[in-house]
Design a protein that fits this description.
The structure holds 2 protein chains of 2 kinds. By secondary structure, chain A is of the alpha/beta class. Chain A contains 8 helices and 14 strands. In chain A, the strands form 2 sheets. A 7-stranded mixed sheet of chain A has the order 2-1-3-11-5-12-9, with helices on both faces. By secondary structure, chain B is α/β, with parallel strands linked by helices. Chain A binds chain B through residues 122-123, 126, 128, 225, 231, 233-237, 241, 243-246, 250, 253-254, 258-259, 262-263, 265-266, 269-270, 273-274, and chain B through 236, 243, 248, 253-254, 260, 263, 517, 519-520, 545-547, 550, 554-555, 567-568, 570, 573-574, 576-581.
C-alpha cells in the first residue's frame, strides 16, 4: 500500500502535554513515514498552524491539539484511505452553518463522535453527535479543531487566517468552512476513537471570534428555519447523546458501528418528537 | 449487616422551620412547609412556627410546651429561616438560611446574617456572588393535581397570562396577552384543581415574571412563554426544571421549541424529586454536624439549658470523643451524682478501651441504682461487640436476655456475637426461634437471620424463612425464587406463586386499542429492568436494543435498577445510548412511576425480572400496554402475559405452560461473553475430579446431599466447590453436610471463582461438572461447555429449571441429562466410561444465538403475536 508521509503539527506551550501527544502519534505512525512538528511559541493557533504548514513536508497534514489521545492502531491507513475521497477530515462537525459555532446547527446537522476526559474527572464521557453514514460523513461544512486532517493541497490553498483569528477560537471553523467554500470535500470520521481532555470554552473570547466569523462568512451561511437549530443564548446543551464510561476499555467497547448508529437514531427521535 | 439504630444514642437536634401561615398561592410559603414535612418523613423532628398549616402535611406547629421539652432534654434546635428574614427573630444559635429568592429582592432590607449561618438554596441562580450555598430543591408541585392525565393535547386552545408584580413595578402589558385569561393573584383566587384544569386545556401560558405557576403549567403540558422585560425578566430564567417546555420571547421558533419539549418537563421534575432526598439527607447531616460542633465549641452547653453534663457526655460518646465523655462523667460522679446512666456510660467507655474489669464494676453499680434496666447490660454487650470482643459481648447480652427474655432488640447483637465466636449454629437457632414471635424487633431479627443464612450459603433455610413472612412482599418473592432454585417440588413453587399473585398482584391491564399517533408508524416497546448486570451477562437486552429494526420499533427503558445511580456503570450507560427513551423509577412508588410513564404510549411491555429481587410485578401488571411479555425464568403471571424464552426451553416446557402464549427466541434464547482461553486436556481416569462451579450461594442443600451421595459411592473421586463470594462459614456448613454422609474432607476442595475467566480456568482443573438441582442455564454451565467439560444436569420441564438441560441438548450432550436423582448418581459414577465430547466449544458457538438472530426472531415472533391479537 502507498504510504503518503504524514506531518503532525501541534501547537503547544505545555511540554508535558506535547510529550504525551507526540508519543501517541509516534506509536500510531510506527512503520509509516511521518514527522511531528511542534510549535511552542504560536501567537495564535492560526499563526502556529500556518508556520507548521510551511515547515512540513508530508502529503497529509494533521493539525492536532496537544490534549488529545487517539485510540486506533489503524489511524494512518484509515486516514490515508479516506483522503482518497476527501480533502479535509475532522472528528466532529456540522453540515449546516448558521452561526459562529458548529454545534449551533443542531440535529440532524451535527455529526461525529468524540470522547471527553476532563482533568480530574473519574469518567470518560462519550459524546455522540451522529453517524448517519459510516465510516465518514460527507457534506460537512465546518469541523471542530481538536484534530483536523488535510491533504497538503487543501491546507496550502485554504490556509489559516491568522489576521482575523488571532486568538484560539474559531480558526477551525474558518479553516474548514473556507475549504468547503473553495470546493474541497470536507468530512467527519466516525470510526477512529479519540479522547479530548478538555471541553470547548464558550466564553466572551469565543463570542468575540464568533462575531468575526459571522462578519467574514455570514453571507454564506445556510438560510432558513432548521428544526434542530439552537439559540446560542439560551441553549447550552448540544443535542448529542452521552455516556459516562469508567475507562478506555469500556469506551472502545462502546465505539462500535451498530451502537453508534442506533444512538444516532435515538438522538433523531429525541430531537424530532412528533 | 444492617446498621443498628443508636438505641441509647442522643436524638438529633429538632428543626424549627420559620414558615409563614400556609397558603397555596405562594411557592415560597409552600417550600417552607414542604421542607418541614419532608424532614419529618425522613425521620427527623421538625416543626413550623405557625398554626396555619395544611392538614395533609406532617407539619406540627411549634408550641411553648414542645420548646420546653426540648430545653429540658438539652436538644438545642436548628432554626430554618427563609431568605426574606433579614435577622434572627428566634435568637437561635444554629441558623440555616434557605434561599427561595434572591436575598433582599423582595423587601430590600439589609441582611444581618452571621458567618456561622448555613445557607441553602432552592436554585443556583438566586445565590448572590461570593456565597456558597448547596442546593435543596424542595418539590413544590403536587403532581396528583398538576399532571397531564387524560389530557387531549390536540384539543388545547386559548392562552393564559400570569402578571403579579409586573404592573406594580410600572410594566406595560403587551398586545399578545390582551385576550389571555389571567391566572395571577389580581383575579379571584382559584383552587389548585381549577388552575390545573386551566393549564390542561390552554395552548400556552404567557408570563411577565418567573413564578411557580410556570412549572405547574408545564407539568400540565402547557408550554410557557416568558415575555422578556427589563423589570422582571431581563434575562432568561434558569429554571430548575431545565430548558424544556418554555420559550424565551414569543417568536414562532421559540414557541415551537417549547411545545415540542414540554412533555419532558415531567421527567425533569421526577429527577429533581429523586435528587431532593439526597440533598435533604446531606442537609440533615451537615446541619446536625454543624449544630453538634457549635454545641461543643460552647463547652458542650446548649444555649437555653443551664447544665446537662450527662447529655453532653452521651453526645460526646456518640461522637467518639472518649476523653471528653470520661471527663464529663467522672466530673458527675465526683460531684455526687447517682445517675445510673453515668455509670453505664462509663462502663461503655471501659469496654471501648478493653478495660473488662472496670466495665463490669461500673455496670454493676449502674444496675444497683436501676436494677430493672436489663437494656444497660445489653448496651454494654453491644459496646464490647463494637470493641471487637465478641466473647465478652456474648456474656453480657446473654445475661441481659436471661434477665429479660423479651428484650428482643438485643437478639441480633447476641447472634452476631455468637457468629463472631464461631458459633453460627447457635446464633441461627436463637434467631430462628425468636423471629417467629410477633414483636416490634421482628424485622431486625429477620434481617440478621437472613444475613447469617446467606453468609453460610444455606439458601434452603433462607427460602423457608422468607416464605414464613407472609405480609412481606419482598421476602415472599425472594422465598419463591430460592424455592425454585433449590429444586423444591414444582407443586410447592406453583402454590406459592399462586398465593403471591392472589395476595399481592392486581389483574393485568391490557390496552386493546392502539391509539397511535398517525404520524408514528413504529411500535413502542418498553423493557422493565431491575438488574442491568444480569442483562449484560446474558446479552439479550443489548441485542434487542441495538438490532431490533429501528424503522419498526422505538425503545423505552423503564429503569428500576438502583445501580443506575452509579454514572459509570458500563452496562447501563450502553443501554442508555442505544435506547430511545429512558424513565428511572427505582426511587418511585408504583403510583409515581405510573405518572412518570404517563407520557409514553407503550405498545409492548416486557418484564425481565419475574420474581427476582426488586421486581415490580404490580407495576408491570397495571401499566397499560397492548401486549405484555415476561422474559424471566420465574414468570409470575401467565394467561394474558406472553412468555419469552428460547425455543429449546419452550419445547421442554410446553406441556406445563399451555395457558400461556409464547414468544420463542432462537436456541436457548440467551448468550454469554466467553473468553478466548486455551483448553487443557485432562485424561479422565477412574478418580474423577468433579466440579460444581455454580456459586454456593445458589446451590441448595438437596444438591449438596446428591453430590455427597456420589462422592460417598465413589471414594476415589473429588469435588471442587465454588464458594464465590462466600467465606469459611459457608465452607464449614457445606463440609458438615458432606461429613454427615460419610464423605471425607480430603475429597472436597473449595475455590472462589467470580468472573467468567475464573470459571473457565477452574474448569481446566476438572473432568466433569455437576449441575445443581433447580438451576437453569447459568455462567457455570456455559463455561464448562466452553472449556470442553461435560456437565451432568437433572432434566426439568419447568421454566425456572429447564435451561440447563436445554443447553446440553443444544450442544448434543443428551447423554449427560439425568432423568431422576438416581439416574444423576448413576451417570456421575459412570462418567469415566462416557464418550468424551470432541469439541463442545464449536457446538456452543453454533448453539448460542447471535444478537442479530435474537433480534430478528424477536421481531418475527412479536409481529405474529400482534397480528393474531388484532385479528
Amino acid at each position: 500500500m502507498n504510504k503518503p508521509k504524514i506531518s503532525v503539527i501541534i501547537c503547544s506551550i505545555d511540554a508535558g502535554k506535547f510529550a504525551r501527544v507526540s508519543e501517541c502519534y509516534e506509536r500510531l505512525l510506527t512503520n509509516w513515514p511521518h514527522e511531528i512538528i511542534g510549535i511552542h511559541d504560536a501567537k495564535s493557533l492560526a499563526e502556529g498552524y500556518s508556520r507548521g504548514i510551511l515547515r512540513s513536508t508530508g502529503k497529509i497534514l494533521v493539525f492536532s491539539h496537544d490534549d488529545i489521545l487517539i485510540l486506533d492502531a489503524d489511524f494512518a491507513p484509515k486516514i490515508a484511505r479516506y483522503l482518497e475521497n476527501f480533502d479535509v477530515l475532522g472528528f466532529a462537525g456540522a453540515s449546516r452553518v448558521t452561526r459562529g459555532s458548529w454545534c449551533g446547527a443542531g440535529h440532524p446537522y451535527l455529526h461525529g463522535v468524540v470522547a471527553h476526559a476532563l482533568p480530574k474527572d473519574r469518567q470518560i464521557t462519550l459524546n455522540v453527535f451522529g453517524t448517519p453514514t459510516w465510516p465518514v460523513v460527507p457534506g460537512i461544512k465546518v469541523i471542530d479543531g481538536l484534530c483536523m486532517i488535510s491533504t497538503r493541497e487543501a491546507a496550502e490553498q485554504t490556509g489559516f487566517d491568522a489576521t482575523t483569528f488571532d486568538g484560539f477560537h474559531l480558526y477551525d471553523l474558518d479553516f474548514s468552512f473556507s475549504a468547503h467554500k473553495a470546493g474541497f470535500r470536507v468530512g467527519v470520521v466516525c470510526d477512529i476513537p479519540i479522547i479530548h481532555e478538555s471541553a470547548g470554552q464558550f466564553d466572551a473570547r469565543h463570542k468575540h471570534y464568533a462575531d468575526r466569523f459571522v462578519a467574514k462568512h455570514g453571507a454564506s451561511f445556510d438560510q432558513g428555519n432548521f428544526p434542530g437549530a439552537m439559540d446560542e443564548n439560551t441553549s447550552p446543551n448540544v443535542p448529542a447523546k452521552g455516556a459516562f464510561l469508567p475507562d478506555h476499555h469500556a469506551l472502545l467497547a462502546a465505539w462500535k458501528r451498530e451502537i453508534l448508529e442506533r444512538t444516532t437514531l435515538s438522538i433523531q427521535r429525541r430531537t424530532s418528537k412528533p | 449487616m444492617q446498621a443498628a439504630k443508636e438505641f441509647f444514642g442522643k436524638l438529633n437536634a429538632p428543626y424549627y422551620v420559620y414558615a409563614p401561615p400556609y397558603r397555596e398561592t405562594s411557592g415560597g410559603v409552600r417550600a417552607m412547609h414542604y421542607l418541614c414535612h419532608a424532614l419529618n418523613l425522613l425521620g427527623e423532628e421538625a416543626y413550623v412556627i405557625t398554626d396555619t398549616v395544611l392538614p395533609s402535611l406532617r407539619t406540627p406547629s411549634l408550641t411553648a410546651h414542645i420548646r420546653e421539652v426540648h430545653e429540658r432534654a438539652g436538644r438545642e434546635p436548628i432554626v430554618v429561616y427563609p431568605e426574606i428574614i433579614e435577622d434572627n427573630p428566634l435568637n437561635a444559635r444554629n441558623v440555616v438560611r434557605y434561599l427561595l429568592n434572591v436575598p433582599g429582592s423582595l423587601n430590600r432590607r439589609k441582611l444581618r446574617w452571621l458567618n456561622t449561618d448555613l445557607i441553602y438554596t432552592h436554585g443556583k441562580d438566586i445565590v448572590p456572588p461570593g456565597i456558597d450555598a448547596p442546593l435543596l430543591q424542595t418539590p413544590l408541585i403536587n403532581m396528583f393535581i398538576y399532571n397531564q392525565i387524560g389530557v387531549d393535547e390536540h384539543a388545547r386552545s386559548g392562552s393564559l397570562v400570569f402578571i403579579h408584580r409586573y404592573l406594580a413595578k410600572g410594566g406595560q402589558l403587551q398586545s399578545e396577552t390582551e385576550n389571555s385569561k389571567e391566572i395571577s393573584y389580581r383575579v379571584p383566587t382559584r383552587t389548585p384543581q381549577e388552575l390545573a384544569q386551566l393549564y390542561q386545556h390552554a395552548e400556552v401560558l404567557y408570563t411577565y415574571e418567573q413564578s411557580t405557576a410556570c412549572y405547574e403549567a408545564m407539568l400540565c403540558g402547557c408550554p410557557v412563554v416568558y415575555l422578556p422585560n427589563p423589570l422582571l425578566l431581563p434575562q432568561p430564567p434558569i429554571g430548575y426544571l431545565g430548558r424544556d417546555g418554555w420559550a424565551w420571547g414569543n417568536t414562532e421558533e421559540q414557541v415551537a421549541f417549547a411545545k415540542s419539549t414540554v412533555h419532558k418537563v415531567v421527567e425533569n421534575y421526577h429527577a429533581t424529586q429523586i435528587d431532593f432526598w439526597d440533598q435533604l439527607r446531606s442537609f440533615v447531616g451537615e446541619t446536625q454536624a454543624h449544630a453538634a460542633h457549635a454545641n461543643r465549641r460552647h463547652g458542650g452547653k446548649p444555649l437555653f439549658i443551664s447544665d446537662s453534663p450527662l447529655s453532653d457526655a452521651i453526645e460526646a460518646y456518640n461522637c467518639g470523643d472518649i476523653d471528653e465523655t470520661t471527663r464529663l462523667l467522672t466530673g458527675m460522679l465526683e460531684s455526687g451524682s447517682d445517675a445510673p446512666l453515668a455509670y453505664a456510660y462509663l462502663s461503655f467507655v471501659c469496654a471501648h478501651q478493653h478495660l473488662v474489669e472496670d466495665a463490669d464494676n461500673f455496670i454493676r453499680q449502674a444496675l444497683s441504682l436501676a436494677p430493672e434496666r436489663a437494656e444497660l447490660l445489653a448496651a454494654l454487650g453491644e459496646a464490647f461487640l463494637k470493641a471487637g470482643m465478641p466473647d465478652k459481648s456474648q456474656s453480657y447480652l446473654k445475661e441481659a436476655i436471661q434477665f429479660q427474655p423479651d428484650l428482643f432488640a438485643a437478639y441480633p447483637a447476641l447472634a452476631e456475637a455468637m457468629r463472631q465466636c464461631g458459633d453460627s449454629e447457635s446464633a441461627i437457632q436463637l434467631l430462628s426461634a425468636a423471629v417467629q414471635l410477633p414483636t416490634t424487633a421482628q424485622d431486625g431479627m429477620f434481617a440478621s437471620l437472613s444475613e447469617l443464612l446467606t453468609v453460610r450459603g444455606d439458601i434452603s433455610a433462607l427460602a423457608e424463612l422468607c416464605l414464613r413472612r407472609r405480609h412481606d412482599i419482598a421476602a415472599q418473592a425472594l422465598g419463591i425464587n430460592l424455592l425454585a432454585r433449590t429444586g423444591s417440588s414444582p407443586d410447592r413453587v406453583l402454590t406459592e406463586l399462586d398465593r403471591y399473585r392472589e395476595r399481592f398482584l392486581p389483574s393485568p391491564t391490557v390496552r386493546r386499542l392502539t391509539g397511535k399517533n398517525p404520524q408514528q408508524n413504529y411500535l413502542t416497546i418498553a423493557f422493565l429492568i431491575s438488574d442491568f448486570r444480569r442483562e449484560s451477562q446474558n446479552r439479550r437486552l443489548e441485542s434487542l436494543l441495538v438490532h431490533l429494526p429501528g424503522e419498526r420499533y422505538q425503545t423505552l427503558i423503564i429503569d428500576n435498577d438502583p445501580a443506575s445511580d452509579n454514572v459509570t456503570e458500563t452496562d447501563i450507560q450502553r443501554a442508555f445510548l442505544v435506547s430511545d427513551h429512558w424513565v428511572s423509577i427505582h426511587a418511585l412508588d408504583d403510583a409515581a412511576a405510573t405518572q412518570a410513564l404517563a407520557e409514553h404510549t407503550i405498545d409492548v411491555l416486557v418484564d425481565t425480572d419475574g420474581l427476582a429481587i426488586r421486581n415490580r410485578q404490580a407495576l408491570f401488571l397495571s401499566l397499560p400496554a397492548e401486549l405484555k411479555a415476561c422474559w424471566s425464568d420465574l414468570p409470575i403471571a401467565l394467561g394474558e402475559i406472553r412468555l419469552i424464552a428460547g425455543a429449546a426451553d419452550l419445547d421442554a416446557a410446553n406441556e406445563h405452560l399451555t395457558g400461556s402464549a409464547k414468544l420463542a427466541l432462537p436456541g436457548i434464547g440467551r448468550s454469554w461473553h466467553l473468553p478466548d482461553l486455551d483448553i487443557r486436556t485432562n485424561c479422565m481416569m477412574d478418580e474423577l475430579q468433579f466440579a460444581c462451579l455454580t456459586p454456593a450461594v445458589r446451590v441448595g442443600r438437596e444438591s449438596w446431599e446428591l453430590f455427597a451421595d456420589i462422592l460417598q459411592a465413589h471414594p476415589g473421586s473429588r469435588l471442587t466447590i465454588n464458594l464465590g463470594e462466600l467465606d469459611v462459614e459457608a465452607e464449614n456448613f457445606i463440609q458438615r453436610i458432606f461429613a454427615a454422609r460419610d464423605v471425607r474432607a480430603r475429597q472436597l476442595s473449595f475455590i472462589h471463582a467470580i468472573s467468567t475467566e475464573d470459571l473457565c480456568r477452574a474448569w481446566n482443573d476438572a473432568d466433569v461438572g455437576l449441575g445443581p438441582i433447580g438451576i437453569g442455564s447459568d455462567n457455570a454451565l456455559a463455561t464448562s461447555l466452553w472449556m470442553n467439560r461435560p456437565c451432568i444436569t437433572l432434566d426439568s420441564p419447568w421454566p425456572w429449571s429447564s435451561g440447563a438441560a436445554s443447553l446440553l441438548r443444544s450442544v448434543g450432550l443428551e447423554n449427560w441429562i439425568a432423568t431422576s436423582r438416581e439416574n444423576y448418581v448413576e451417570k456421575a459414577l459412570n462418567a469415566h466410561h462416557q464418550a468424551r465430547p470432541v469439541s463442545l466449544r464449536d457446538s456452543l458457538r453454533t448453539a448460542l444465538p447471535t444478537p442479530q438472530a435474537m433480534a430478528a426472531a424477536f421481531d418475527d415472533a412479536l409481529t405474529r403475536a400482534l397480528r393474531e391479537m388484532r385479528q
